[in-house]
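Objective 1b. Sequence-to-structure analysis of Putative trypsin-like serine protease.
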Amino acid sequence: AWFLLLINQHGVQGQRLAVQKCAEYAKIITKTQALIPLTINPKPITYKIYNCTNVVQLIVGGEQAKFGEFPHHALLGYPREGNPNEYDFRCGGSLISDRHILTAAHCFSEDDPKVVRLGEYDTTFESEDEVQFGIAGVRKHPNYLNQRSYNDIALVKLDRQVWFTKNVRPACLWDSEYRNMTSYIATGFGHNETVGIALSTTMMKVQLDEFPVNDCAQAFLGHKRFKNGIHDGQMCVGSIVGGKDTCQGDSGGPLQTVTNPKTC
């Protein structure tokens, strides 16, 4: 399962809501089959089949994603100037339920996106997997301040329910304060180069490594977006290899990991 790196609140019966929903969504893409051994008084052997694309392995460098690898990835579309029926997808997000997208609050700082697109892989080609939704509401973190990198999170409510498919389904939210991994994957359609003008037309993926928070505290010392330093709830993620990072246009997109056993 793909896990987004966020801590969720407790649900009913003492179990985190994130855990409950993850188990619920897992049933959608799995089926159980039974085998009857050719023996006397056989006991059926059951096993699960996952109806999903192969899970990606952690990658060495930034590269083009494969179709269907990241079925939770969402794009936020902003109307183009002079042609409001066409959209520029300048922010990303993550499908986390059948009505909600998790994204960054600063994606709503200047102008607001009007649509959310799911199932997108190549923006130059229209496929039957793409589904576009209107935005019914937005809830930004109440303590978010523009031009600051604290509490930069928002929930987008879609105008209708999402029907899950092999290539459109939610990611699980990370449900523990403990993490036993140090490498993650970021995805997006942002600029391929820092000085680039055009956004990528296909989904890209890159492996990023976690560093001690103190490293980021030193790197961003005095930066206007980090007036209060690095908070405990923030992660320090990047790469010592040049050219590997997220970029403009990737804002709001997921930082994710794959759990063991690797399923969907």
